[in-house]
């Protein structure tokens, strides 16, 4: 365990996926653990801690307990400006992110992927390629299970991680063997003093601990990344990819062929059979296949993986961006717990499409998330009374609909540039649809028809 020799008491701030994962990992290795959440905390997460007999609190922070910690593991959603963080800093207690904490328990090969857009697809795509090659791996981080939870569950050959700027802000020794930097566009600037350069610096932290034995795969078409690399002393080997120009080293696109040249070894593959469409997905495929090539995966396996990867359908699936509004299909969320994860991941004001066949749902665990993240609710079902009753006081705008076309049309009118429109029903689908897949497909068709 690197850097944990004199650590006995660990406090985890934030009762979410990353917080629960960090707490479970800490307990597994014999640390005295306490979890503190200033909000309501999700009941699913609280239950997970109860099952492990881990002490926790919600609805506020007991500073006397927190300041007894030797180390604090902070949820990425908690900004450094809040009072509890200031007091911990004043007390001289080290604060790290969950990915930093988890990395101290493993010597396994880490592949970390970040970017303002596309990181979920590239993370999933990379995981798909490695699985097709028969490698032992986990895929997680900012998607799916937390890194800490995966480390706690057992060993793996490779850890493929989606990492956000918020997670990277809290690293100290986190060192991926392969780092992937997809793009950097202005995002989350409220967390970075409204200074783009601070956000850029945060993203660039992915490479800060790499050495000459490691690799940084980066988008050579992104001027922000190119300039940021020039300004920094990056020790890892730079591996560019480009849709725009031919490269002697790295990965480029020419005549619908992806060509990868590494250490005088060149492979070329047609994009004609790439199942995820669009120029941005070609770039995503290039990033994933370059990662696979660095790991010595055969060309035939990479090619077959490119043909068989279907994206991440019905699970926080980015459908389209229309008038700077992102439409997201999470139709697979047929219960409150799944929708909790979806709403938790929303980083922009969200118009939420919810409803269907209520299975006796307890919506109370969603209240704090809805209050913070949802600007308007579109009810979609034959009977929306439970939704109206549960959330009527949480948002200013709530509209009832009984068809997907109507729901999407209303969401379009309620949203504005910079928003998300999220279909995450929290209910079964069989009042208006055959199943959740049918519901998701109808959502995508309605969005495309706008």
UniProtKB/TrEMBL annotation:
Question: Taxonomically, which superkingdom?
Answer: Bacteria
Protein family: Belongs to the MurCDEF family.
Q: Where is the Mur ligase C-terminal domain?
A: 314-427
Query: What protein name does the entry list?
Result: UDP-N-acetylmuramoylalanine--D-glutamate ligase
Leader peptide range in chain numbering? none
Instruction: Please provide an example of a Pfam family that matches this protein in its UniProt record.
Output: Mur_ligase_C
Q: Which organism is it from?
A: Nonlabens spongiae
GO terms of molecular function: ATP binding; UDP-N-acetylmuramoylalanine-D-glutamate ligase activity
Query: Catalytic activity annotated for this protein?
Result: UDP-N-acetyl-alpha-D-muramoyl-L-alanine + D-glutamate + ATP = UDP-N-acetyl-alpha-D-muramoyl-L-alanyl-D-glutamate + ADP + phosphate + H(+)
Pathway, according to UniProt?
Cell wall biogenesis; peptidoglycan biosynthesis
Could you say which EC number(s) this protein's record lists?
Answer: 6.3.2.9
Domain named Mur ligase central: which ranges?
113-291
């Amino acid at each position: 365990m690197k850097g944990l020799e004199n650590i006995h008491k660990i406090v985890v701030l934030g009762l979410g996926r990353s917080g629960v994962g960090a707490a479970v990992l800490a307990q597994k290795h014999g640390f005295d653990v306490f979890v503190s959440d200033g909000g309501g905390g999700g009941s699913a997460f609280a239950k997970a801690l109860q099952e492990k007999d881990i002490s926790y609190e919600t609805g506020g922070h007991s500073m006397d307990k927190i300041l007894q910690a030797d180390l604090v593991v902070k949820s990425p959603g908690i900004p450094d400006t809040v009072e509890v963080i200031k007091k911990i800093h004043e007390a001289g207690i080290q604060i790290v992110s969950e990915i930093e904490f988890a990395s101290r328990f493993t010597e396994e090969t880490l592949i970390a992927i970040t970017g303002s857009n596309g990181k979920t697809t590239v993370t999933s795509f990379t995981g798909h390629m490695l699985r097709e090659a028969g490698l032992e791996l986990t895929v997680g981080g900012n998607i799916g299970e937390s890194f800490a939870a995966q480390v706690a569950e057992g060993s793996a050959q490779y850890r493929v991680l989606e990492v956000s700027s918020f997670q990277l802000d809290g690293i100290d020794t986190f060192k991926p063997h392969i780092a992937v930097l997809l793009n950097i566009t202005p995002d989350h600037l409220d967390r970075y003093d409204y200074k783009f350069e601070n956000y850029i610096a945060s993203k660039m932290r992915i490479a800060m601990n790499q050495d000459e034995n490691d690799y940084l795969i980066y988008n050579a078409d992104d001027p922000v990344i190119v300039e940021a690399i020039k300004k920094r002393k990056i020790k890892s080997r730079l591996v560019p990819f480009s849709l725009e120009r031919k490269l002697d080293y790295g990965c480029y696109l020419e005549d619908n062929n992806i060509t990868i040249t590494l250490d005088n070894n060149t492979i070329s593959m047609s994009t004609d059979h790439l199942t995820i469409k669009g120029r941005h997905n070609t770039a995503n495929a290039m990033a994933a296949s370059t990662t696979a090539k660095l790991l010595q995966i055969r060309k035939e396996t990479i090619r077959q993986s490119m043909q068989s990867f279907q994206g991440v359908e019905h699970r926080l699936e980015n459908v389209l961006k229309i008038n700077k509004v992102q439409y997201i299909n999470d139709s697979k969320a047929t219960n409150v717990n799944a929708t909790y994860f979806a709403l938790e991941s929303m980083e922009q004001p969200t118009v939420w499409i919810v409803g269907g066949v209520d299975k006796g749902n307890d919506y109370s665990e969603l209240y704090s998330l809805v209050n913070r993240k949802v600007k308007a609710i579109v009810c979609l079902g034959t009977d929306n009374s439970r939704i109206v009753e549960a959330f009527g006081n949480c948002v200013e705008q709530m509209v009832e609909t009984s068809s997907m076309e109507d729901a999407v049309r209303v969401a379009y009118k309620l949203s504005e540039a910079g928003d998300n429109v999220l279909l995450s029903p929290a209910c079964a689908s069989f009042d208006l649809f055959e199943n959740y897949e049918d519901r998701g497909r109808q959502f995508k068709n309605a969005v495309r028809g706008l």
